[in-house]
Amino acid sequence: MSEHKPIDPRVVALYDEYCHGRIDRREFLARANALVIGGISALAMAQLMFPRYADAQTISFTDERIRANYVDYDSPGGTSGQMRGYLVRPTTEPPFPAVLVIHENRGLNPHIEDVARRAATEGFLALAPDGLAPVGGYPGNDDDGRQLQGSLDREKLSRDMINSARWLKGHELSTGKLGATGFCWGGGMVGALAVELGADLGAGVPFYGAAVAAADASKVKAPLLVQLAENDERINSGWPASQAALEAAGVAVTVHSYPGTNHGFHNNSTPRFDEAAAALAWERTVAFFREHLA
Q1: pTM (2 decimals)?
Q2: What is the CATH number assigned to the segment(s) 63-293?
Q3: Which ranges in the chain are annotated with CATH 3.40.50.1820?
Q4: Which of 66, 82, 114, 149 is the most exposed place for a label (fewest CB within 10 A)?
Q5: Backbone phi, then psi, for 204, in 5-degree steps?
Q6: Judging by DSSP bridges, how do beta strands 224-231 and 253-262 pair with one another?
Q7: Residue 178 belongs to what H/E stretch?
């Protein structure tokens, strides 16, 4: 995995605003340039924040434990009625429990494809849908991907993810046991899937995603393992009320907050990555899916 130098928290906070579309790339770099740390501009530090996907690959495309390909499938009610995803299967004998891997707010980038390959090496049939597929797919860089995803109808985009989950659950290589994990926007989408699918979802693991609305808690049937970064007040603030409502509705909810981490700590392509926390969170994720999708 990639190693990153420590980044000043003020730069991390600026990058978080940029990642979530509250400022654009130009403003992010301009504000970093105006920020003086140790007597020098923070611009160089800010430029280190951008993802380096080639350096962050952990599972090769040619890994002998897996077989991967892109698949097309119907998605009624979605952006275009058609969807595309990255399907990765173990090379062992099927069927396999299935795990949907949901991207952030920029489409199916190389990091999320790598996460899908990681899931397959653990014995799961993994599908990483590309919410941008109906409008041409992930454009090759996160800036354009973020802008493109932001232009989509949110309800139709959500429907594409729900349809992807149902397609994966019914896949001929699947046992019919379905789990879902996602990151940032995808983390919030895991909660939305839990509400929509009810008992058809076997387990959900959102990473620093928006909390399930308390009013929807009674619709959730899947156990949830919630992975949070300690320094992520915007996301974390919604979870106490959500957790209380879910538990009152009889949902099994486990929440882990990883000390000293920032939003995006699992993504090893940027300096927000925390190797120890990411490894522990992934270990817990795999164990949770094995427990509930067996």
Answers
A1: 0.89
A2: 3.40.50.1820
A3: 63-293
A4: 82
A5: -130, 135
A6: parallel
A7: strand 174-183
